Amino acid sequence: MSFPFIEACRGRATDRTPVWLMRQAGRYLPQYRAIRSRVSFLDLCKNPELAAEVTLQPVDFLEVDAAILFSDILIPVEAMGMELRYEPGPVFTNPVRDAAAVSALRVPVVQEEVPFVYEAITLLRQELQGRVPLIGFGGAPFTLACYMVEGQGSKDFATPKRLMYQAPRIYRELMDKITETSRRYLEAQITAGAEAIQIFDTWGGILAPTDYRRFVLPYSRRLIAALEAHGVPIIHFVKGAGAMLETVREAGGQVMGLDWCTPLGRARDQLGEEMAVQGNLDPSVLFAPEAVIEDEVRRILEENAGRAGHIFNLGHGILPMVDPQKAAFLVRCVHRLSSGG
Ligand code: CP3
User: Fold this and answer.
1) Active site residue 27
2) Which of 144, 172, 194, 287 could anchor a disulfide with 139, C-beta 3.0 to 4.6 Å?
């Protein structure tokens, strides 16, 4: 048996375009908010039964073609020895700013430090019973470094960039440790049953292409090469990568995630037949009337022009203020319009 989502990741034709939504579990869903009113975000991530339950909420409600594990990219970073809070954005109490802080970071034995991640995956595979495939995920080394050095979200991540230019050796030692942690963290997700892996590089696009090549690409490539050896599809999503797709492509993986500022048709022309793509509706289009959503779905499918290897998705995570009915409409629209309806 084979899933349309997995087939599309492998560049093979499917009866209809598979679709899932980044951040499909979350605050826009009342059933998610109901659980969050009782437990904190971190406790939710650390409780395998509850994490599995919220993973399944959008699968049931939206009828998407893939489930994505409910967790967060910063979970393995806490296991490296950093104190993590969500307010609701992530905050590290002691950001990593010097050589001593980098040395103090541990490369955790993930099965012991974050067992709940793997327990949730095991539970989900049982509960899904082959209904849709399960995507595991992690942050790309650079995006994790951004939060670890800055200590929180930022517009320009000037602190990690300063470290990169002023103390490149410390930066590289940090990136080595993060890459090794991520390799262990994601290989164990595959072993536990994740059927595809998405790497989120939310901040990779804040660098000039030449700096991306120097400071980010070697680490993402090393991580993806290790994961590819396990045979599951790897989706590489670098937000803001439109002007450097050929460079990002060198990191490997089967699927390139595209944000909405990157024209999908042009990206496909550039990347060629071998690489599948995922994307790329502007998440805020879900605020528009249904007729506008439908037009946008049609436009993106037309840009893809019937080529195999397209997974429909948003160009970034779904926004908390979105009406869940609009998200469900989007999924139905993709299925209907891509199967000739
Ligand atoms: O896609 C899914 O449904 C799986 C769950 C998922 C979460 N975070 C849950 C979450 C995934 C794939 C992530 C990835 C993630 N986390 C990224 C990369 C993707 C992206 O959006 O750029 C990043 C940068 C993070 C770090 C992070 N975690 C931030 C910046 C925030 C705050 C954002 C916000 O909306 O307030 C979080 C918290 C977080 N992660 C929430 C969820 C559902 C909201 C927590 C809550 O319930 O209050």
Assistant:
1) yes
2) 144
